């Protein structure tokens, strides 16, 4: 187990298998991972736990990842936390819309371990 403190990542993903895979990749690389299954839970955990970055899916029940981005960027407690969108929505218009909502990086599924880690590292700089 890697114990170096590289940063705290909040992972918002409603698909358990995706969450487990991403959590594994991030933990293996030395990040502390906090999981949230819904966008609303993500907002609460972002405010309480002050992560260094947030990785979110887009298509989730209730509030989408795009709406989550907007909410986090409007809240003074979370406005400066970088957000990585990780989604199967792979059209250029989706990417542009995600960035317009406040995302700092955009990764499309299926992704490799390297793509995910590169995106997370790029927003933590």
Structure at a glance:
The chain is built from five helices and five strands. A five-stranded parallel β-sheet has the order 2-1-3-4-5, with helices on both faces.
Structural features:
alpha/beta; Rossmann fold; five-stranded parallel beta sheet; 5 helices; globular
Could you characterize the architecture of this molecule?
The protein has 125 residues and is an alpha/beta fold. It has a single domain, classed as Response regulator (Rossmann fold, 3-Layer(aba) Sandwich), CATH 3.40.50.2300. Helices cover 44% and strands 18% of the residues. It has helices at 16-28, 39-49, 65-74, 92-100, 113-124, and strands spanning 8-12, 32-36, 53-56, 83-87, 105-108. Strand 1, helix 1 (16-28) and strand 2 (32-36) form a beta-alpha-beta unit. The radius of gyration is 13 Å and the shape is globular. The mean pLDDT is 94.
Strand order of the largest sheet: 2-1-3-4-5
How far apart are the termini? Answer: 24 Å
Approximate helicity band: 40-55%
Uncertain segments = none
Question: What would CATH call the architecture?
Answer: 3-Layer(aba) Sandwich
CATH homologous superfamily annotation? Response regulator
Rg result: 13 Å
DSSP summary, beta strand count: 5
CATH class equals Alpha Beta
Largest sheet: 5 strands, parallel
Whole-number count of domains = 1
Tally of helical segments = 5
Strand content: 15-25%
Structural class: alpha/beta
- The H/E string reads EHEHEHEHEH
What best-fitting shape do the alpha-carbon axes yield? globular
What is CATH's topology name?
Rossmann fold
Q: Mean pLDDT across all residues, rounded?
A: 94
């Amino acid at each position: 187990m890697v114990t170096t403190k590289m940063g705290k990542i909040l992972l918002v993903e409603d698909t358990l298998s995706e969450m487990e895979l991403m959590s594994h990749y991030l933990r293996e690389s030395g990040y502390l991972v906090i999981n949230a299954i819904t966008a609303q839970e993500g907002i609460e955990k972002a405010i309480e736990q002050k992560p260094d970055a947030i990785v979110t899916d887009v298509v989730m029940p209730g509030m989408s990842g795009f709406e989550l981005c907007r909410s986090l960027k409007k809240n003074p407690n979370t406005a400066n936390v970088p957000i990585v969108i990780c989604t199967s929505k792979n059209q250029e218009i989706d990417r542009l819309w995600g960035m317009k909502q406040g995302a700092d990086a955009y990764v499309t599924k299926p992704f490799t371990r390297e793509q995910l880690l590169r995106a997370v590292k790029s927003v933590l700089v």
